[in-house]
Design goal:
By secondary structure, the protein is α+β, with helices and mostly antiparallel strands. It contains four helices and five strands.
């Protein structure tokens, strides 16, 4: 197994923000095959109390992978990922995600995850990264 060239330090973090668009929602629908009304039908989403369709939670959570890759570098892969959403997020919301290295266990990197939606807490979790060469 080849050891990664770079190892981040406790406290290293990265932020990334992106506004979730209708076009990206359509692309994720095609990728996931999820045709749930909350995500693809504005009327159903409005009846559920949202101002627009809900952002796919996994599409929003995928932004965390950008932060993880930027902090850890190319020598690591996601080994474990846990995230809890506090509420549904409508399309058009700007998500700001942050991943902060909080612990190392041997070669495993443990990150705290934070997701804000238009400046309001929306989700939190943890991720573990392992060297890419590990099975």
């Amino acid at each position: 197994m080849k050891k990664p060239e770079y190892t981040p330090r406790i406290g290293d973090s990265e932020r990334f923000h992106k506004t979730m668009t209708v076009a990206e929602q359509a692309l994720f629908t095609g990728i996931s095959g999820n045709l749930g009304g909350l995500y693809v039908d504005r009327r159903k989403a409005e009846r559920a109390g949202l101002p627009d369709m809900a952002v796919f939670e996994l599409a929003g959570a995928s932004l965390v992978s950008t932060c993880l890759a930027r902090v850890a570098g190319p020598g690591y892969r996601i080994a474990r990922f846990e995230i809890a959403f506090e509420r549904a997020l409508p399309v058009g919301v700007t998500l700001e995600v942050e991943a902060t290295l909080v612990e190392t266990r041997g070669e495993i990197l443990v990150f705290a995850l934070d997701v804000q939606a238009d400046g309001v807490p929306a989700a939190s979790g943890r991720a573990e990264l392992a060297p890419a060469g590990e099975g």
